[in-house]
Amino acid sequence: MKTKFLICFLCLFSTFKVFGQNTLGGLEVPAEDVTLLNKYVKNLDRATTDTEKVKLCLKLSRIYWYKNTIGAKDSSIYYAQMAYDISPSANMSASRKEALFLICKAMAEKNNVAGADNLIASVSGEERARLMLVMGEHFVFSNHKSIYQQEKGLPYIFQEIILSKNIKSEKWKHEGLMLLGKYYFSQGDFNKGKKTIFEIISDYKTTGNSKMEAHYWSELGLYMPETDSTYKEKIFCHQAAFSIYYRIKLYKEAAYTLRDIAVLNKNHNNLDTAERQILKMLAILKSVNIRPSFTTYRIAGDISRIKGDYNKALSYILEALNTPEILLDRKMNGYETLADIYSELGLPQKSLYYYRLVLNYAVSSDKPGIFLLCYEVVREQINSGDAKNALQFLIQFTVKHPPILTIQKELLAGAYGDAYSAMNQFYNAEKYYLQMVSLDRVVQKELKKEIGDHSSISGSEAYFTITGSEAYYNIGRFYTAFKRYKDAKPYLQQSLTLSPNLPSVKRIKDIEFLLFKVDSASGNYLSAINHFEKHKNLNDSIFNATKSKQLTELQLKYESAQNAQSIRLLKIKSQSQQTEIQKVNMQRNITFGGIGMLMVIAGVTFYSYRNKQHTNLMLQFKQNQLESKQTEINDKNIWLQNLLHDKDKLITEKDWLLKEVHHRVKNNLQVVISLLNTQSNFLSQGPTFNALRESQNRVQAIALIHQKLYGSSMTTSIEMHIYISELVSYLKACFDTRKRQISFELDIDPISMDVIQAIPIGLILNETITNSIKYAFTEQPGEIKIELSKKDEKNLLLTVADNGKGLPDLFDPKKANTMGMEMIKALSKQINGILLFSGNNGTIISIEFPDKN
């Protein structure tokens, strides 16, 4: 039945006689600045020429086409029809075609298929081809279309391709093939989609049109659905486009293609590669004196944000917001990224301000993405300690904007879960989190068919999601908070690897800390320590004193610029009002100029007096506004000073807490040493007694580090020349080396070492010195020499040497399996060290390892 319908449709349209019309434009309605709507309406009323009226009507039609309010599409048709009727008298044939295109687009959105078909029948050639593709695109890609509805678009597309071939219009044949390729992609038929678009690329390659060949390589990379399996193919397509653009010296196009590759790498967590590509793109644009676009700076900022480099991220976003003549849509994109940065920095009040600003704009302008913005507003309100009002806001939002798409339902489920979790309502929270995860599985399947670029506030709803990593992090965090560690762990592990929306460095840091808590509670201490080390390393890479200072300076710079701009606008407005007042006074003076001399003098005097009073009042009012703005600036400066004070206070508290931790660890280890000592008192000399003594020495080596940290002003690093000296003194006393005439020579450079490196070094020294004391000397006296020095700028060298009897002839470190030897090898590997043994004239053990400081 479907086949018969298709054949009939093709035959019907193929009977029309067609002519080429050189129709320009594509299938997308150009965007206009919606904030200029009222201005365009007023200008249309004042317009005196038909040319001016046509241009304004087309602008108004485009603005209404993008609006989703009731009657917006009718308004779009109204203004397009007006432009269509006026354009012949103004001799504007291209504008007449554009008006017909806008009418057809609006009719398609209103599902007025009969009206659109009448428009198609009324034109010929390329103009008909364009309108047929408008209808094909409408059926194939409008939201909520069933497969049956999508297939209704195929006759339009197939007939358009036949028509374009008949009139020899390469442009519109390729537009039709491109739309057909997108259709195949949306149905999951990747091979057919690629084959169709390859036909376009092959045509341009054959004709030698390298620019268009590169363009369609880029289009293929852009519209191929993005999955793990297609990632490399999409990269290949964009790289092919980049190579051609660069070869034919179209550097701007090459640069923006490189940006597309960077976005792909960002989406698949290849952040270092993405950053390098963005920097290369910026360098190319700089070489040809082209200012990067707003979107470029925003993408660069987003990559830096995900990497945890908030200084760079904030710098890029501020640069984006300073882009000349920036559209309001894009400014809102910048504000949203700014809110993301403040959120990850733990500044919920600042992020909440910008999220609300963008949400209000999106709601008032009928933009997609309002459900993600609602989710983010709820999250930041909870982070501000106001869970109750967050839930109330969420309920009101759901009533006003009931969700339709699965993605929207998932976002609201996640928001309800967060709100109930913050209010300690476990069962309600769990219900919504499980609903979120269930919806997430459906959404991930849907996203595999999603095509195109959704990187802006005006893009597809598919872009605005917590799907993947974030959803699983949320439920894992919830179960951890309520001590359901067994339930939490699989979700947290999946959140580290699940795409799309792989986690940022900040989020990975949080996930590692939660996994540390989960493994600690489960008794899996080795894994817990591993997760804690990862968390600490990431935290140190994101937050340090230098970065905090730079970040504060950037925030001050941005806020000062905003305040300066506000004051400048006030001054301009004041000057404008004064000019208007002077103009009114001049008109009044001219009106009363014909009256007698006395009336003129009296009138001038009276109006001058009134003018002076009015001007004084206006100046006083503006002065009050400026003083108010200055007060606001002063308040912000005080707030920033308090923030810096709080930061210093928190650092002091952190140092105190670290000292307390080291003190308690040291005390606990002393308890362990005492227990081992007590236990050994009940044993006679022998292997068990010796094993306990060796364990006691190992624990003492660690305890000594925590003792030094507790007693020092530095809470994270050890002065190794002091520590090693005390460790050797302890071992000398323990083994009574004076009686055995064993002497020690220490040659230790003044080196500070992080606690993570110091503990393995202490244990290695304990093992090697103990082995030398026990086995190197039998009856004769001897000497043990210990050296720690810088080998070069990046590496340290630790050497323990004795002049004892040396190693056995057939000694092989790889085959030695004593506990002490296994510990030395394992600890050397832990610090990335190179372990070497030498047995000539005594024993020499050396370890070369990197200096982390």
Account of the protein in words:
The protein is mainly alpha-helical. Helix content is 72%, strand content 5%. The chain has 33 helices and seven strands. The chain has helices spanning 2-14, 37-46, 50-66, 72-86, 93-109, 113-121, 125-141, 147-151, 153-166, 170-186, 190-207, 210-223, 231-247, 251-267, 271-287, 294-307, 310-321, 328-344, 348-364, 370-383, 387-400, 406-422, 426-447, 469-481, 485-495, 505-522, 525-542, 545-591, 597-681, 687-711, 720-735, 755-776, 819-830, and strands at 717-719, 742-748, 752-754, 782-790, 795-802, 834-838, 843-850. The strands form two sheets. Strands 2-4-5-7-6 form a five-stranded mixed sheet, covered by helices on one side. Strand 4 and strand 5 form a beta hairpin. Helix 20 (370-383) runs antiparallel to helix 21 (387-400). It is elongated, with a radius of gyration of 37 Å. It starts with a helix and ends with a strand. The model is unreliable at 1-21, 453-464 and 545-549 (pLDDT under 50).
Helical residues, percent: over 70%
Classification by helices and strands: mainly alpha
Shape: elongated
What percentage of the residues does DSSP assign to strands (E)?
5-15%
Terminal Cα span: 76 Å
Task: Give me the number of helical elements.
Answer: 33
Poorly predicted runs are: 1-21, 453-464, 545-549
